[in-house]
Amino acid sequence: MMKTTGRLRVFGAPLLLFVVLLVFTSAGTVQAFATASQGKSWRVVSSPNTSATVNVLYSLAAFSTNDVWAVGEYQYDPSPTGPLVEHWNGTVWSIVATPSGGAGNVFYAVATIPGTHEMWAVGTGGLAELWNGTKWKIVSTASVNSPVLYGVVALSATDAWAVGNYYQGSQMPNAALIEQPSSGMAHSGASFQARIRPR
Questions:
Q1: Distance between terminal CA atoms of the chain?
Q2: Which among 92, 85, 91 is positioned nearest to 109, based on CA atoms?
Q3: Between vectors from CA 150 to CA 21 and to CA 148, what angle results, nearest 5°?
Q4: Which domains does the chain have, with CATH numbers?
Q5: Cys bridge to 119: 11, 67, 112, 163, which one at CB 3.0-4.6 A?
Q6: Mean pLDDT across the chain, nearest whole number?
Q7: CA torsion sign, 76 to 57 to 181 to 131?
Q8: Cα 161 to the chain's mean position, in Å?
Q9: Cα–Cα dist 62/148, whole Å
């Protein structure tokens, strides 16, 4: 059984469209695959899997047709999950090392920063990491209870938003969470304190 988890249209010459898939095998494992189309038909593109049990890609972002990124999670049963990052160089997908951000954290979303070769990735535990063009680096986010960031967008080098929810307490609903880099802080700083906007 296959499940589509995200898609990305990259404009260039030629047009390239990627969709990441989960494939549930007969052995009970979950493997991540990518499919690609150049406007005529689809083909499966082999991608590496960190784990022999669970590998999932949730989100895609791209700078060009030969510089595409996918993020998600892996799990070594019964060990906790960790963030999975893969890069397409125009020929093959490869795994890119990233700080763990703590056991059990995974990435749900990734977004490029316009006018730069940098991008944001966000996920569970309030995990946020910045790709500075060379490596991934963890940046601090608002201190709330059990935060999960599901989406991120960057409008410029100094204007980004991340959204998700956090736990308010027993017998209370989870609250919506919106975060943004602190005013005046450069996106490429060693760390930044995000601003929390609960709803």
A1: 38
A2: 85
A3: 125
A4: 2-151 (2.130.10.10)
A5: 112
A6: 75
A7: positive
A8: 14
A9: 23
Give the pair of three-digit tokens for residue 196: 């929390």
pTM: 0.76
Q: Which residue has the higher pLDDT, 42 or 4?
A: 42
Within 8 A by CB and 6+ apart from 72, the residues are 5, 20, 32, 55, 56, 57, 58, 59, 83, 84, 106, 107
pLDDT tens-place string over residues 165-196:
988 888 788 888 888 876 544 444 434 444 55
Q: What is the largest CA-CA distance in the chain?
A: 54
CB 74 within 8 A of CB 81: yes
Mean pLDDT within 19-28: 45
How many Å apart are CA 33 and CA 114, to the nearest integer? 27
What residues contact residue 30 under an 8 Å CB cut-off, 6+ apart? Answer: 22, 23, 24, 53, 54, 55, 56
pLDDT of residue 110 exceeding 70: yes
Contacts of 101 (CB under 8 A, 6+ apart): 83, 123, 125, 127, 129, 138
**What is the C-alpha R_g of the chain?**
17
- DSSP-assigned letter for residue 103: T
Structure tokens at 74: 């892996």
Mean pLDDT score, 112-125: 94
Q: What's the confidence (pLDDT) of residue 193?
A: 47
